[in-house]
Amino acid sequence: MRAIDVFVDFSSSSKTVASHAMARLESPDSLGGIASRIFCAAPQSGFIDANESQRGVWRILDLGPVEACDHAMSAAADSGCPLLVLMGGIEPGCDAIGTLLGAFDDDPMVGFSSPRLTGRHPDSIAALGEGGDRTLPELPRRLLAELPPSYLVADARSRCLLIKRDILANFGRLDLRFNSLAGALRHYVGCARRCGFRTLVCNQAVAIDTSPDKRNPPRATIHSLPRRDQILLQELLPDVERTDVEFGTQPVASIETRLARALPHAYAARPSLLLDIRNCGRYTNGTAKAALGIARGLRTLGADWDVALLARREASLAHGLEELFPEWPIYTSLPDRQFTLALRLSQPWHIEELIELHGLAAYNVYLFLDTISWDIAYPAPRHLDGTWRFLADQADGLVFISEFTRDRFLRRFGEAAAVPQVVSHLSFEPADYVHPDVQRARDPQGPIFVVGNGYDHKDVSRTIELLTTAFPFEPIVALGPVPAPTPRVTVFESGSLSELELHHLYAGSRAVVFPSFYEGFGFPIVTTLAYGGTLLARRSALLSEIAGECRPHQGCIVPFDRREDMVELVGRILHHETVPELPLGGALAGETPKSWRDVAATITTFAGELSSDLSRSRWRSREHSIRQLLAARADVAPVGAAG
Asked: Are the C-beta atoms of residues 523 and 289 closer than 8 Å to each other?
């Protein structure tokens, strides 16, 4: 191994600590036999007498740390040796130093190399700096197996830095105007970087940190420097902050803490789960029912996950999330920590949502309710096709609420066939769909209840028109977009009724008509059956799938193919005549219908299996693609603009 010079900053150490450190550094396993000379800034004046300033390989300098390091750099440049700079109780082994030296052989434009440092425990490593999950003060050493051999970064501050001899020979002395050695070295590294020389962080080299306080390791930003040094550094290197954010250790620090969260057993923690329900609004629509139902099931299940919720503020207040889930953190903005797995409890609508979840967890799983917006097109957000194609390429897992929905998605986005997936029907347990203050009793004078909303595929307008014409004297209540055509027809905008009012309609109507052409599950189906009612619904593969999972002998489903058939069937029901019913419970095989607890168990089992092996995560591919997407957001001059 080539000989090197070493500089050690003992200026903040006591005499006792410095003496013990010198003895350890002299050992053959550390610097003994490698270092030609070891320069050090003395811990206090009088640490050693002037006539003893040279002791073996040691050169004791009664100077401040900046001046002492500058002296060592000049001496190393004269002798043609690389210089290893150690600050704050760092003790590298021979193997680590060998790796740092080898970094210079692979790339002539690597001017500096640095190792990883141990954390508070022997089986941990320190975080690279800011930019990641600050609630993780250190990372499991097991993480190194998931990282590339090295990072090529710019201006990285390190407490163990090997400086190439060519750098020492060409970039001269430290700027003695800096008060701190960290500031002076940061400037020195930055000057070399501006000439093309980068820093290599060697993940395969680990140096021992013997600092007494490792809870707050020095941060790798200019803001951790003394104020005077910050100002001077920004004056001399105006690009230093941009370099930190875009080319420094900050981006990889975020990746590393995200991966650490994906290895909870490596640091004796439970896996953590973020439930993203930001697609829920103030009203209790189908999306909210699905998301909150799964969340309640998970709370009841008591699964071995640390769970948190991410919701919109207005939804959190409207649904009382803090009261429903008092043991879970509720975030109404992006959390300042990361998780093992992020599960979005509805399909995403914008590429930004996928980027945000990628930053929050190494595993990203999405629940798909339906593909209706993509198919009907007009309400779809711009670029929905691109968003879902990105998801099909990059998601770690997909959960579908019906086989019908899975088939539609895979037919449209076939590349998703390679993504781990599971079908988890929503709850079919009748008790999950009845209101405690509503009796299950038919009202002989009850209305015909038409369920839908303002979207065309719900087919509410045409259905009301036909029913009003066929039954002019029957009371009709509808959830839909049209004004009431007669006084006997009442139309409410979807979401405008309270839960109690809505359940009274399900319980008291003589017939519930659900004319939708296209659904992913169909809450009106299971809610009507929960009250023992009669539901008329358009015949479809989904309707048969849902009917097969429902409890038999509790209500009935009457299928129809055309609107005219629906009108005839309503008439027969009003006159108490028999109508053809769809068989219920065919898929149950004697089992009870699934509850929200069962749904949560299916999803968490899937999530647990998926997150048990980090190699199953697509985080690397996703990181690569997202960096390209973010680059496209940069401001560019319009074509033809003056340059």
From this structure: yes
